[in-house]
Amino acid sequence: MISSHLHGKLKPYHNPDVDTVVSGIMNGDRHMLSRAITLIESQKPEHEQKAHEILDRCLSKKKSALRIGITGSPGAGKSTFIEAIGELIISQGLTLAVLAIDPSSRQSKGSILGDKARMERLTGKKEAFIRPTASSGYLGGTSPKTHEAIVLCEAAGYDVVIVETVGVGQSEVLVDTMVDFILLLMLPGSGDELQGIKRGIMEIADSIAITKTDGDQSGIAGISRAEFEAALRMMPVKHIAWHREVMLTSALTGKGITEVWQNITDFFAVMRENDTLEKRRREQLKSLLYTVLEEMLKKEFFSHPDVVDAKATIEQKVLSSEISPFSGAKTLIEAFSRRL
Ligand SMILES: Nc1nc2c(ncn2[C@@H]2O[C@H](COP(=O)(O)OP(=O)(O)O)[C@@H](O)[C@H]2O)c(=O)[nH]1
Ligand SMILES: [Mg+2]
């Protein structure tokens, strides 16, 4: 790891070709894996092109990992929890990649350095790859690009991939199309949040861990557990064969960490029966295809020269009630399709 790090420092402009990156990734070179994720996250068309070549090559060779999403509000204890369960995972002889949301994004407080520091115990281990991911423009830090980063981590041979995301509505639906298992982290005493925005997040959770149930918080933790269990019973069933658990944890004392890992491995055992896991992954790919397609179309549309030309005029006509928003949109679509 140290040598590849130095390599990057000494040759900052070195631009390896697709072959080099792909074989690097497959040989477990983290520097190449990191580089490929950077390419994927880049907005530059030439990077995008290269990233997709790398990705397609990796797709054909990838082995599949246990894909786990860990979600919860900022400060719920996600990073600290990931570090604790990460150490357990590694102690079982498995390798782990963590795609952590960039905590310097608008929604959450903190900095990459602060967060990285909290995962320092993992960062120093050769069995772990920790990667803060840019959250550019996406709520909660998850974007369709997260899926591509997962695929690269699988090509690099990691047994487990954990994605850390901030639980905010829409991004959860997206993360649900990328991971197999979603663990929702909730603070003790936060049961009342379930009435409002957290409802949607609970619907996609495969289990819940109540965090920081140490010290003063241990008393109310039991009440919270009963509240969450009751709330889960009101939620639509996500997988018929799976019963969602509510577990009490503390990353500080290690309480419940083994139980959560057991719960996760139980889930995979259940989902592997009757091919449910593979079936679900195919559905996820289909859903991602259309998500990405919609995004691409939108981008193409708004950068089309005829649309750019006509947009201001049409907008003005709509604002002055000369034409309806419907006719305005239709005119723009016509402008877009005319020269295709
Ligand atoms: N008492 C206690 N504090 C914790 C625990 N886990 C995390 N924290 C603290 O909670 C704060 C937020 O943790 P962090 O992992 O960064 O939360 P994230 O924003 O969800 O990733 C930090 O100050 C942690 O030290 C825990 O199990 N017990
Ligand atoms: Mg965090």
Indicate the topology.
Blueprint: H1 2-10, H2 18-26, H3 30-41, H4 45-61, E1 66-72, H5 78-91, E2 96-101, H6 112-118, H7 120-123, E3 128-133, H8 144-155, E4 160-166, H9 170-175, E5 181-186, H10 198-204, E6 207-210, H11 218-234, E7 246-248, H12 257-272, H13 276-303, H14 305-319, H15 325-338
Parallel strand pairs: 1-4, 1-5, 2-3, 2-4, 5-6, 6-7
Helix pairs in contact: 2-3, 2-4, 3-4, 3-8, 4-8, 5-12, 14-15
This protein binds guanosine-5'-diphosphate and magnesium ion.
Keywords, separated by commas or semicolons:
Rossmann fold, alpha/beta, 3 domains, disordered N terminus, 11% strand, 7 strands, binds guanosine-5'-diphosphate, 340 residues, Single alpha-helices involved in coiled-coils or other helix-helix interfaces, binds magnesium ion, 7-stranded parallel sheet
